[in-house]
Automatic annotation (TrEMBL):
The name this protein goes by in its record: 1-aminocyclopropane-1-carboxylate oxidase homolog 1
Name of the encoding gene: LOC110801471
Pfam families documented for this protein: 2OG-FeII_Oxy, DIOX_N
Keyword Metal-binding found: yes
Domain (Fe2OG dioxygenase): residue spans on this chain: 213-319
PANTHER family registered for this protein in UniProt: 1-AMINOCYCLOPROPANE-1-CARBOXYLATE OXIDASE HOMOLOG 1-LIKE, OXIDOREDUCTASE, 2OG-FE II OXYGENASE FAMILY PROTEIN
Keyword Metal-binding: yes
The species this protein was found in: Spinacia oleracea (Spinach)
PROSITE patterns for the chain: FE2OG_OXY
Family of this protein: Belongs to the iron/ascorbate-dependent oxidoreductase family.
Length: 366
């Protein structure tokens, strides 16, 4: 008789080999979720979620920053820099409005992601792969399917859009044009944000750009089908991002939560806004000044939820660049906290560990 571990491995492989992801399970009409998606109850509901917040208590009001005129109005820019500094130090997250990307581009990007995942099965299967290094466009379900403690109720695609974007014919027709357009717009916004973040650290505007924070851009589309038993699983497990900076476009269904002061706080969907969060690599180079904060996405009876995460990272590139805390941010009062590492070294450790709810950063502390 097969062991429990062998049973699980067989179930994971069978799911993977369908090449239809979680959507395939939903399309089959299941009313109970497969065991590989069931998360330990102890990890699902702790710590507590913020439900009722006093109107006078601003500790749990998610930061929203208006970028309008931040490039042209010096006084407003100072205000924006201070708001970004405070949010990056206390929350690790904030939303931006008036960021310069037209609403139509945002809407078309959401439609493009949904269009890909709702392609005919036989067409979509052709893009399914677990070769995250060599394939230009990677459609899969759960990057840590074989290493994580439980699978998440989510399908994804990802593609490196900078510094060497794929050719148009290497992308699915359902989203190729908008992927190119959206990625170009996100790159411009990212460079602007790195400038504001540099100033918030008391550095020259180009500092984070100059050390390579904007060298690579990976754009990932996520599709969270409606779940028949959302209380047993997660859309995305608790984790912190492993990049420098993430720009997230989400639809209006909601479900994203940020861990703030040991409470789960909802990130309210705001039409036209983008969610920004600090990644582990930015926490490392800022020597813990800016925080890479754990977050998660709840599974939901509603669906599909669609989001687009743009990661500033050289994750899947052959790069020997080494990162360490910025010299100007290391002082006697705040000594160097991390050893020098490459992105590849970081990712290898992360992938082996999986999304198990624990941070990667402590592994690289001095």
């Amino acid at each position: 008789m097969m062991s429990t571990k062998s049973d699980r491995e067989a179930e994971l492989r069978a799911f993977d080999e369908t090449k239809l992801g979680v959507k395939g399970i939903v399309d089959a009409g299941v009313t109970t979720i497969p065991s590989i998606f069931i998360h330990p109850i102890s990890k699902l509901h702790l710590p507590p979620k913020i439900t009722d917040i006093d109107d006078d208590d601003d500790r749990f009001l998610f930061p929203i920053i208006d970028l309008r005129e931040s490039e042209n109005d010096l006084e407003h820019r100072k205000k924006v820099v201070e708001e970004i500094r405070e949010a990056s130090e206390k929350w690790g997250f904030f939303q931006v409005t008036n960021h310069g990307i037209p609403n139509m581009v945002l809407e078309d990007m959401i439609k493009g992601v949904r269009g890909f995942f709702e392609l005919d099965n036989e067409v979509k299967k052709c893009y399914y792969t677990r070769d995250f290094v060599n394939d230009k466009f990677v459609y899969h379900s759960n990057v840590d399917l074989y290493t994580g403690p439980a699978a998440n109720w989510r399908d994804s695609f990802s593609c490196m859009m900078a510094p060497n974007p794929p050719r148009l014919d290497e992308l699915p027709p359902s989203c190729r044009e908008i992927l190119m357009e959206y990625s170009g717009q996100v790159m411009k916004l990212g460079i602007m944000l790195f400038g504001l973040l540099s100033e918030a650290l008391g550095l020259k505007q180009s500092h984070l750009y100059d050390i390579g924070c904007a060298q690579g851009l990976n754009v990932s589309g996520h599709y969270y089908p409606a779940c028949p038993q959302p209380k047993l699983t997660m859309g995305t497990s608790k984790h912190a991002d492993i990049d420098f900076l993430t720009i997230l476009l989400q639809d209006q269904i909601g479900g994203l939560q940020v861990l703030h002061q040991n409470h789960w706080v909802d990130v309210p969907p705001i039409p036209g806004a983008l969610v920004i969060n600090i990644g582990d690599h930015l926490q490392l180079v800022t020597n813990d000044r800016f925080k890479s904060v754990e977050h998660r996405v709840l599974a939901n009876h509603k669906g599909p939820r669609v989001s687009v995460a743009s990661f500033f990272s050289t994750l899947f590139q052959e790069s020997s660049t080494r990162f360490r805390p910025i010299e100007e941010l290391v002082t006697d009062e705040n000594p160097q906290k991390y050893r020098e590492i490459t992105v590849k070294e970081y990712y290898a450790y992360f992938l082996g560990k999986g999304l198990d709810g624990t941070s990667v950063l402590p592994h690289f502390k001095i």
